[in-house]
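Entry 12.
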Amino acid sequence: MTLAHPAYETVREVTPYASVLLQHNPNFMTLDGTNTWVLRAPGATASVVVDPGESGEEHLDRLLAAAPDAALVLVTHGHFDHSQLGPELHERTGVPVRAADLEYCHGAAPLTDGEVLDAAGLRIGVLATPGHTADSVSFVVGDRDAVLTGDTILGRGTTVVAHPDGVLGLYLESLEKLRDLGPARVLTGHGPELESLEEVASYYLAHRAQRLDQVRAALAQLGPDPSPREVVEVVYADVDQILWPAADLSVQAQLAYLKTADA
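Predicted 3D structure (tokens):
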């Protein structure tokens, strides 16, 4: 079968140790599709797969061709477009799949914050970055050479804090932790890679502060207890309405945060 775009047909090398395989599942939430990362130090005889993606024979076959030597699969969070292929990959190859949440682990224990993995000739640090979801983690490669952020930071636009599992206060703390890692390269879960983690995390924090101010202004306009959709119609009026259901989740997270922060 011929795919619609050559980006879905090739594995693209981003750094000497990281290549990306783009899944053919584009939509308004996944952007161009899910980025499945293959990590391998030069000369290493094994690889690490990060975020195997959605279930589907086509992507599984492409992933097995790109990483026939996979020794470990890591999952940034449990959303289906990142984790769903994990059990199929484990069943096909026996490779262990690890995530922060036991539900998405197969043949291995859950990840723990601060854990350091030695695999594929690389040192990969596990950093808990909850907020987008409760189980979100990022992976720090080497001496902060690059950070894989899943959906905590995207390559284009900003992410959803998926209330009630996602919590805005935790998300802001996670962004601060990522910002403090400095100008590391950002290997995102969707969209292009970014050059400076410090810069993009700072932008995300400023954007969130601006949105909170807009929500405060909407509450002053609408009264103390509007519905999330009423707030969305004011704050996200310039956003395509196809994204409003996702904005509903973020507004619910913002309202919950403000009840505590502004109390």
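Annotation: The mean pLDDT is 94. The longest helix spans residues 197-222.
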